[in-house]
Amino acid sequence: MGTSSDAKTTPPRLHVLLARHGDRALVIRRGPSKRVCTIGWGRRTDTFELGQWLKGRIYERRCDLSPGGEYFIYFAMNGHWSSATGGSWTAISRTPWLRALVLLGKGDCWHGGGLFTGPNTYAVNDGYGHTVMRDDRSLRRDAEFRSMGSYGGECPGVYYNRLQRDGWTLRERQKEDSRSHVTVFEKSLPQGWTLRKFAREQVGSPVGKGCYWDQHALEHSSGTMVDLPDWEWAEYSEGELLFAQRGALYRVGRPGRKGLGDASLIRDFSEMRFEPRAAPYR
Questions:
Q1: Is the peptide bond before 32 cis (omega within 30 degrees of 0)?
Q2: For a Cys staple, 203 with which of 7, 65, 179, 279, CB 3.0–4.6 Å?
Q3: pLDDT class for 239, splitting at 50, 70, 90?
């Protein structure tokens, strides 16, 4: 990790959403801090499709993919507070694009984003409310959705529910001090291994991290611990251990009894630069 927030020294930050069914995924790449893009990932063939760039911020922990990966719900902010959206908005687009099929103006950064509850149904992290600016009859808001737990209106309110829905077990929530909380999630792997995710909520976080960031570790039933401080995102899915670090995406096969095998690079996103792109739909 670099020692300044300059784009030359701080690698881009990656967060990945995996569709629950099928092989579709979405990579959210942030860097520099006010530039973000979305990249579709076909996991079966490791093919990638650049979606669109945004001059602003996508709050990746308030995002979700529909079960088959066709749609993307996200919360974004560009700070244009006098614009029609009020400078922030929740939207649903066709993966991997950002052009909104459903557009809900927000006007602040409290709450926002949401979760898919079915192939064409979604719940909004509403809070103080949104203004409907565009709608799509093929998508329906789920008014009966009930979350697994209440974790506040910002990123954990969506992220922690998404993790639990996708097979993670919440083990504990700890207050480390007045400026830092950590919530520990676990997922079982083969051969006696457990993947741990330490979801941090921190004021004054390390350089290159937001106020919400993750750390990871592996623990074997024999007591062996493997600390993985550089993994900013990790998931176990369909027999693969996937992780992101320093702007690149990797995979490891099934962990063996003696630990991890060699990681293989899937894609390095470090050299990407902003480019304006239009979505292929209206």
A1: yes
A2: 179
A3: confident
In a 13 Å sphere around the CA of 165, the CA atoms on its Cβ side amount to 23
φ, ψ of residue 159 to 5 degrees: the values are -60, -45
Task: Match 């611990």 to its residue by tokens.
Answer: 225
Could you state, in order of their start, the residue ranges of all structural domains in the chain? 13-268
The answer to whether 257 and 230 have CB atoms below 8 angstroms apart is no
Has residue 148 got a pLDDT over 90?
A: no
Site of tokens 């974790």: 151
pLDDT value for 250 = 97
* Residues 237/252, Cβ–Cβ less than 8 Å: no
According to DSSP, the β-strands at 121-124 and 180-188 are unpaired
Model-wide pTM > 0.70: yes
Q: How far is CA 85 from CA 23, 182, 272, in A?
A: 33, 33, 28
The mean pLDDT of the chain is 92
The answer to whether 207 and 5 have CB atoms below 8 angstroms apart is yes
pLDDT tens-digit readout, 273-282: 999 999 999 8
When mean pLDDT is compared over 90-94, 144-148, 189-193, 252-256, the highest value belongs to 90-94
